[in-house]
Sequence to fold (238 residues):
Amino acid sequence: MATARSAKEAEGGIQKWKKEKEEKEKEEEEAAAAMWVGEEALRKARDEGPVESKLELHPLLNRWALWFFKNDRSRTWQDNLHLVTKFDTVEGFWAMYSNIQLASKLSSGCDYALFKDGIEPMWEDSRNRRGGRWLVSLAKQQRHSELDHLWLETLLCLIGESFEEHSREVCGAVINIRTKGDKIAVWTRETENQEGVLRIGRVYKERLGLSTKTIIGYQAHADTAAKSNFLAKNKFVV
Fold:
């Protein structure tokens, strides 16, 4: 009886050992297969390069360039002007805006300028020479409460072509950070296009949320260049 029980236990032990051996071999085979798959994936990634995420981009009607000006009196005006980046999609705009310093954080004497690609932010550019600007002047205390909002809204007006058919008249926009008070301006290409200039001014004022009592003026670049900003006469007002 004891012998029969011992034989049965021995047989059970053998079966258990065989089962454990089979399970171990299966695990080793699976591990080897996984290792091969992993190595194959690495080889494929090495040969094909990194996989790029295919995001759906939203193109803008125009390509835009962001410029930065920092006043250094030891250098020429042109040498103080630097091209930062260009973009032509909505995603490109937000990537740019999210990675630059807010206008309210810039030092006095610095400017940002956003212009259509190919137009430089200076009066001398042939596409600016005959034009002018809608100018919004801000008090010093508005820098930390309103400046960034107004500048962002200005940028969105430009890239979103908010002036409809008159958007083709828009060259760009500039923000000047100054000790006595900051300024934001939208530049247009043709001062004599009264209909287009006035339409742009009215839409711009509305988009900024300015009250009807607030008056903004349009100055021709030729007048501004000939006189100081305080003396340049407004050609139009809204």
Summary: The longest helix spans residues 2-48. The chain has two domains: 1-52, 59-237. The chain is about 40% helix and 20% strand. The first strand starts at residue 59 and ends at 70.
